Amino acid sequence: MAYAQPHPRLSVVSNSSHSSIDHLSPTTSSTRFSLPAVPTPQAVAKPAANRPNIYDRPLNKTRNAEVSASAFAFLFSEIVQYTQKRVSGINDLERQLNTLGYRIGTRVLELMVWRSEGSSKTPKRELKLLSVLMLIHTQVWKAVFGKAADAIEQSVENADEYMIIDNDPAIERHISVPKDMSQLSCSSFTAGIVEAVLDGLTFPARVTAHNTPITQFPNRTTILIKLEKSVLEREELLKK
Amino acid sequence: MSHHLFLLSPSDTPLYSLTHQSTKPVPTVTSPLASNLPTWSTSAFAGTLTALSGASSATQTTSGGAVRVGGGQDRHVIQMIANAGLDVIEDVMRKENTMYLKSVDKFNEWTVSAFITPGNMKFVLLHEGKNDEGIRAFLMEVWELYVKTMVNPFHTAHTAIRSGVFDSRVRGSARKYL
What are the annotated GO cellular component locations (chain B) (predicted)? Predict the structure, then answer.
């Protein structure tokens, strides 16, 4: 039932403004001398009518909508500052950012696939690890950052490790990490998104972010995916 | 003819369930009991099932005198069939790359169809009779409604869906397609 109500903060704002208009306006004298606290049914219904229910909104409306980069940079900087005040150490901070990203990732996955497959007669799911990794490299990156990631590689040493490389991650463009925190990669947020997508598609993995600067791209970041054993075993079985 | 829909989270927590009585006429499927029963139910679980159905009011005795198990509309029997179907669903979803898995399991008159969303949510539908196209369209609409629910920041993977609007929308498309 919570969805039927408008956003609590908005409803407070609009209700109070509505009742204050009631008090000031000479035409509505009915409430003038009575108790003002009780909102009339119309006053409650009004904001609901202005603001459509989430089930009334088409999901494709914001498909090509873009978010202002400066607004996002500001929001993300606040997120990092807020988180930093509540953690002890870099590892903890990265874990928190990862958790926040995870919440985004579950939604990105479902919405993104709905937008591409929702109108199809036989919507498909990805079953193969490689196609899932390609999906993350291109589709997810496009949905979240507006462009595909720059590279995807398999680790030479470990068969269960894959790396997605972004030469200039959008979320770090306006972040300069202090020297004493040089290990910190704010792309842990992105790692969380990737982890959620992999989890959702039943390819559980541990995903971390690392700074791997090179001379042309000082911001270059590697998202390291370490897949769980069960995933690789299943891949083996599927090959047969 | 009735339909039972369950929305299960990736950790198999039921988030929403719906029972829908269809008004549309159905071509009745009259197949003998024996052929409808999966093989395992006659062996390992038969005792449990008889006991289960014995407790329910809707146990029907067929003309042959055999007890028809699970044939009632009892909630716990329905839930058990839906849960039992999960095993088959999880097997099939490893091999099939479609989201809509039609008629994955059968139990007496019930057919189990499922829909797996990319986020691994499972929509399990118990139905009688055959209506592939209608069920597909219904489940697609449920998916859209579910996506709208889950992009809400206040929804988590384990919160039950209690929205009245969601409920009425699902009922609406059930009336339309089932």
Answer: cytoplasm
Q: pLDDT at position B96, please? A: 87
Whether residue A55 and residue B153 make contact (CB cut-off 8 A), yes or no, is no
Is B124 in contact with B110 (CB distance < 8 Å)? no
Q: Is the Cβ pair B99, A57 closer than 8 Å?
A: no
| CA-based max dimension of chain A | 82
Quick check: B103 contacting A, CB < 8 Å?
no
Cβ of A118 within 8 Å of Cβ of B149? The answer is no
What's the complex ipTM?
0.75
In chain A, where the domains are located: 2-50, 70-239
For A73-88, write each residue's pLDDT tens digit.
999 999 999 999 999 9
CB contact under 8 A, B98 and A109: no
User: Crossing angle, helix A69-85 and helix A90-117, to 10 degrees?
Assistant: 140
Q: What are phi and psi of A43, to 5 degrees?
A: -65, -30
Residues in A whose CB is inside 8 Å of some CB of B read 1-4, 53-55, 57, 59, 103, 106-107, 109-111, 113-114, 117-118, 121-127, 200-202, 234, 238
Q: Which fold has domain B2-42+74-177?
A: Beta-Lactamase (3.30.450)
- Note down pLDDT in tens along chain B; length 178 residues: 789 999 999 988 899 999 988 776 655 444 445 445 554 444 445 445 544 544 433 344 333 333 444 445 678 888 889 889 999 999 898 888 899 998 888 888 889 999 999 999 999 999 988 888 999 999 999 999 999 999 999 998 888 999 999 999 999 999 999 8
- Please name the residue that has the structure tokens 């390992």: B44
Note the CATH number of domain A70-239: 3.30.1380.20
Q: Where are the domains of chain B?
A: 2-42+74-177
Determine, for residues A103 and B94 on separate chains, whether the beta-carbon distance falls below 8 Å.
Answer: no
A163-202 pLDDT, tens digit per residue, is 999 999 999 888 889 888 888 999 999 999 999 999 999 9
- Residue A86 burial by Cβ neighbours in a 10 Å radius (0-12, 13-18, 19+): exposed
Q: Which residues from chain A sit within 8 angstroms of residue B147, using beta carbons?
A: 59, 110-111, 114, 118
